[in-house]
Here is the input.
Amino acid sequence: MATDRANPTHWVPHISPLRCGIVATILLAATIQSQAQWQILPTPTTADLRGIHAVGNGVAWASGTNGTVLRTTDDGAHWQLCPTPPNAEPLDFRGIQAFDAQTAIVMSSGKGDLSRLYKTTDACQTWTLLFTNPEKDGFFDAIQADSREHAVVLGDSVASKLQMWQWNEGSDPEAELSYQDAHLAEAGESSFAASNSVLQLVSTSQVDPIWKYAMRWASGTSSHEYMTIMRHEKTKTCEPCRGDITRLSFPLKAKSSSAGIFSFSFRDDLTGIFVGGNYANPEATMDTAAFTIDGGMKWLPAQTPPHGFRSSAAYDPTTKTWITVGPNGTDISTDDGRNWRALKPTPADSPDADRDWNALSLPFVVGPHGRIGKLRPDALVAAPAAKGTKP
Here is the structure.
């Protein structure tokens, strides 16, 4: 029976201080573990941030509009506003790949020569222009690097030809154009450059060590009647060649040019998820996520989808938790993408801590107007693997 504030003499049953303390501790722990989330960090910019890459040991790099690049070496306590790369003031840096506190490659997205790559090796004091998109109708969507000397860039198709570039240190990137066959793309096919997460370089047991990597990437079609993910693996049986391409259909129907796959990731050879939806209708929950347990050959819609459009997702191996973010919220899954539930702020968090996010690289998340958050250490709790899933 609760205390009646209007009647201070109302009878209240006795509860020992010890029991009261235990109950309070349990309730507080449950609240923190299930809900505490993004701590909003101070930043020196109001640019819209689209790229983030945490490399560990307290080092992370972020990027965004107006040629903006940020860097932290103290786990987000302070963010340095880097000098803008040469002639990059009007560029939108939607992807960044970092390697340590000194070295990073940043990618801008835009039509034609507004799509570029820059690299720094001295903590962003100076920048070198690596590559400018030579296709006047081209558009860079994502960059992934597996070393300081090698990166892969995915772009929209041009003249029904898929555009994928490899950059190798010391080489002419234009000479490294590959995977440009017409049968790999359809008219107007493109990807979303929302969070630099429609391309993934992965290590698989089937890949010959001399190739170092396999690639998967997602794309949509101009008709927007379906969405696809394509997987490319250079296998042990492959002589020096372009590799095998598999086009995999998803169980979703994109209803407009603003709908599609915005982010996907695999945590091992077989297990992966994708998220997306319709950015023009961010509250809609239909067709916002799917999962696979066979390397992407077959995809199944999430049984309980995220609570709206999501632009980025990442996996936390310590707690075996997927986390995804978007403009209207944050969701997590502990059963490899089958079911998602909202991660809501607590009184310890900013009231809008769960929303207005574009991209994440754990433990950091970025959004518009210079917004950066850091996942609280107690935001996720370890969960057992769901039945029938690979641990």
User: Anything to note?
Assistant: The chain has one helix and 28 strands. The mean pLDDT is 81. Residues 40-375 form a domain with the Methylamine Dehydrogenase; Chain H fold (CATH 2.130.10.10).
